Amino acid sequence: MQNFTITIEPRFYETDALGHINNASIAAWFEIVRMKFIESLAGSDPALAVHWILASVQIDFVAETFFGTDVTARVTGAKAGNSSLTVLCEMHQGEKLTVKGKAVLVYMDAQTKAPARLPDHLREQLLAD
Amino acid sequence: MQNFTITIEPRFYETDALGHINNASIAAWFEIVRMKFIESLAGSDPALAVHWILASVQIDFVAETFFGTDVTARVTGAKAGNSSLTVLCEMHQGEKLTVKGKAVLVYMDAQTKAPARLPDHLREQLLAD
Amino acid sequence: MQNFTITIEPRFYETDALGHINNASIAAWFEIVRMKFIESLAGSDPALAVHWILASVQIDFVAETFFGTDVTARVTGAKAGNSSLTVLCEMHQGEKLTVKGKAVLVYMDAQTKAPARLPDHLREQLLAD
Amino acid sequence: MQNFTITIEPRFYETDALGHINNASIAAWFEIVRMKFIESLAGSDPALAVHWILASVQIDFVAETFFGTDVTARVTGAKAGNSSLTVLCEMHQGEKLTVKGKAVLVYMDAQTKAPARLPDHLREQLLAD
């Protein structure tokens, strides 16, 4: 799997009265990361970018995230199941690890709206170095 | 026009690092007020509740709004144009006026997706005392 | 532990273009549930309500949540560690289980800003039927 | 006044069930624009960037904004009052004007927490071409 990283600039309204970025904003950021990662895999298959549902998300808030400094979100792993894709993510602010996330997405058949087997070219990309 | 009031309980994640409710959260609350007000007018005409677009919104932040105390949002006026509806709103926290809002919505024909004349029964409700 | 339930009315702006409530909005709702649950435990000890940080959150999206119908969020379990509190939650929309959540919070000493032992009266409440 | 423009990439969770970006998300984007604009004026006076409250905001939703295409937000005017600053903004998606915004901010004295006269160097910057 290729290294996949995006930069997120915290927004003031994403802070809360504790003076840091609220946990729900970070859950929202994780959606950006996942979607862009899948988009990057989709390549010449645009349909691939959209037919997913989120089955579960797990977020460890390792350290506080603050307004004023960019956050680097990196996909640290991605594993294909039969119809599911597990995406691991780490966020750093400066040198500090602030967030570890894990999401499980399910690939849906556009017609039947039922879980479908992940396309082979996506599996290959995940296995490629 | 009948008095129309709803209660909004501020949520912690709606605060920002200044320790008060963020202005964008208040813009979002105003959507709740407008939608529930229009729903209350729609009565036996459910289609009426949904075919609107927001043309403009104006919000005066008269005083800060804080977490921990309910907000009362009241529609203080509503005026029908040909295809537009102007909704005025005031929010109070405790005795204090905190927000004054004005929104202009446009009624859309469901088929043509073009602005349409407001239904007469809605005009009558707005004129009724 | 007493049964603890709150009702959440989905807001239109919490939907996304897939036509359902976005996962980040549900992560945000879970904060409401946790905070109100802890507030209910705090009772005569108001300080108890505030000195917490969120260590991790896990959310299973069992079924889609839609705009237009209230959601019932129930705390189905709460377990005290030394300085941590694990809160389990289920959300239903109508009869349907839509969300299962688990959050781990850490109790912080207000002065030292370090994790502190959970107060005994809170432990007792969690053990009481 | 120098031309001031930023680019905003719409996020999926900022859409709503109507399939476009929700109005409250656009109100939130406007905060990003204002804050970055003021930051750009503050230059060597970091305190200047933070001591502001939002008095009012007016947003015209000229056309729908969609997910998938960057938005360009440009400050089209800024006028200094005694202690107030009015900021005008236009957002375009592609070639299309989608949003016109106007915000009135008040400059606050950090000590007294009362409105204060805008610093002269800020006035000069706004007058400079």
Q: Biggest sheet of chain A, in brief? A: 5 strands, antiparallel
Which geometry of chain A do the CA atoms define?
Answer: elongated
Q: What is the helix/strand order of chain A?
A: EHEEEEH
Give the oligomeric state of the chains in this entry, treating copies of one chain as homo and distinct chains as hetero: homotetramer
Cα distance spanning the termini of chain A: 5 Å
Percent of residues in helices of chain A comes to 10-25%
Number of strands of chain A: 5
Beta-strand content bin of chain A? 35-45%
- Indicate the radius of gyration of chain A in whole angstroms: 15 Å
Largest interface: A-C, 16 and 16 residues
Spatial strand arrangement across the major sheet of chain A: 1-3-4-5-2
Structural class of chain A: alpha+beta
Low-confidence stretches of chain A: none
Number of helices of chain A: 2
**Taking all residues together, what is the mean pLDDT of chain A?**
92
Could you explain the architecture of this structure?
The structure is a homotetramer of 129-residue chains. By secondary structure, chain A is an alpha+beta fold. Chain A is 22% helix and 36% strand. Chain A has two helices and five strands, in the order βαββββα. Chain A has helices at 23-42, 120-127; strands at residues 4-8, 52-61, 71-80, 84-93, 96-107. The first copy, chain A, has a five-stranded antiparallel beta sheet with strand order 1-3-4-5-2, with helices on one face. The longest helix of chain A has 20 residues, at 23-42. Chain A starts with a strand and ends with a helix. Chain A binds chain C through residues 22-25, 27-28, 31, 53-61, and chain C through 22-25, 27-28, 31, 53-61.
